[in-house]
Design a protein that fits this description.
Elements lengths: L7 H10 L6 H16 L3 H10 L16 H14 L5 E7 L8 E7 L16 H11 L8 E5 L5 H8 L4 E6 L2 H13 L6 E5 L5 H8 L5 E5 L7 H12 L37 E7 L4 H13 L2 E8 L3 E8 L21
Parallel strand pairs: 3-4, 3-6, 4-5, 6-7
Antiparallel strand pairs: 1-2, 7-9, 8-9
Helix pairs in contact: 1-2, 2-4, 5-6, 8-9, 9-10
Length: 343
């Protein structure tokens, strides 16, 4: 029986045709295992399996008549899967410029019903582009304390962790999105250096002490969807990004946990690359062009300069530093942007 319950086809058949008369304990076990296995396959594969078994989401509606809250929650999630809108696993692979094995990251995306959750449920196009920038120039994150804002499933922060960041804090506003990001950190075995937390951009003055102003790298992909985001994001970056620490010595602290104080760690060596603290930003074509222009203006007003930029219709990519740091490193030390995919 235990071996059968590790088989996705068996569970689809059980949930579709054999739930009547089963105990709550058995139903909870079947639903929990179904969700685990469904999350590890593609949405297309899952739907094909359900079709082959003649099982649709309507078969699970009978489970919604129970008073057992656990079964209600599990069945609701299972129904979204069978509707083709549930969580599913996506694997991203990025070639590395240093000749090491390609960077492989698996993340679970999801479909949420709550207001404001949908944007953070999936990986939008700018995030893989930002990961390619990091893979091409690992020194942007290696040996550094890294903050990702508007993380969604956490792809960029996980890439930073795998590329040698000292600590990574991935943040978003919606609790369910942050929970999914934390799950992806665990899936990719990055819990030794990375953790997900809630960060509210509208309460940045309350959060400023937590951000501590000493992150060596801030990552932001597809963070401008509404007009107000263009003005909200720069103060967050300003509160988080460190002053120039080229000649500072530090000592790295313990690895993070759910209760770790995520003020940046310290480390014994100077940064591995002659860069000032840097903010890496990629904005996709979902960002209104006037929103991007306003974002650039707000970054300037907050004392930042784009030392590298590539703005075009489909994608805008930047490396920002504090304006006072823009001359710390000769221009040739700033990494070149990799070609956009397809170029």
């Amino acid at each position: 029986m235990a071996e059968q319950e590790d088989d996705l086809d068996y569970l689809i058949d059980r949930l579709g045709w054999h739930v009547i008369g089963e105990s709550d304990e058995v139903l909870e076990r079947w639903l929990t295992k179904f969700l685990q296995l469904a999350a590890s396959t593609t949405q297309e594969d899952l739907l094909q399996r359900c079709s082959a078994a003649a099982v649709s989401s309507s078969k699970l509606v009978r489970l919604m008549k129970t008073s057992n809250e656990t079964i209600l929650e599990l069945a609701s999630r299972a129904i979204t899967y069978m509707d083709g809108q549930g969580e599913h696993s996506v694997t991203h692979t990025f070639e590395r410029a240093d000749g090491q094995a390609p960077l492989t990251i698996r993340v679970q995306e999801a479909s949420y019903a709550g207001e404001g959750e949908t944007l953070g449920a999936k990986v939008w196009p700018s995030a893989p582009h930002l990961c390619r920038m990091l893979s091409a120039s690992p020194a942007l994150v290696a040996g550094r304390d890294v903050l990702e804002i508007g993380c969604g499933p956490g792809l960029c922060g996980i890439a930073a962790a795998k590329l040698g960041a000292l600590s990574v804090l991935v943040t978003d506003y919606v609790p369910s999105v942050v929970e999914n990001a934390q799950r992806n950190i665990e899936i990719n075995d990055c819990t030794a250096v990375a953790v997900a937390r809630i960060l509210d951009w509208t309460k940045i003055h309350e959060e400023e002490s937590a951000l501590s102003g000493q992150y060596m790298t801030v990552l932001a992909a597809d963070v401008i969807y509404d007009d107000w985001h263009a003005a909200a994001v720069p103060p967050v970056i300003a509160a988080a990004l460190a002053p120039c620490l080229h000649h500072s010595a530090h000592t790295h602290t313990d690895a993070p946990s759910a209760h770790t104080d995520f003020s940046p760690s310290s480390h014994t060596a100077a940064p591995a690359h002659p860069l000032c603290p840097v903010c890496v930003v990629v904005l996709g074509d979902r960002s209104a062009r006037h929103g991007i222009a306003e974002f650039e203006r707000q970054m300037s007003l907050h004392g930042f300069a784009a030392v590298v930029s590539d703005t075009r219709q489909i994608m805008s990519r930047y490396l920002f530093v504090r304006a006072a740091c823009a001359t710390c490193c000769p221009s040739h030390t700033w990494p070149a942007l990799p070609p956009l995919e397809g170029e």
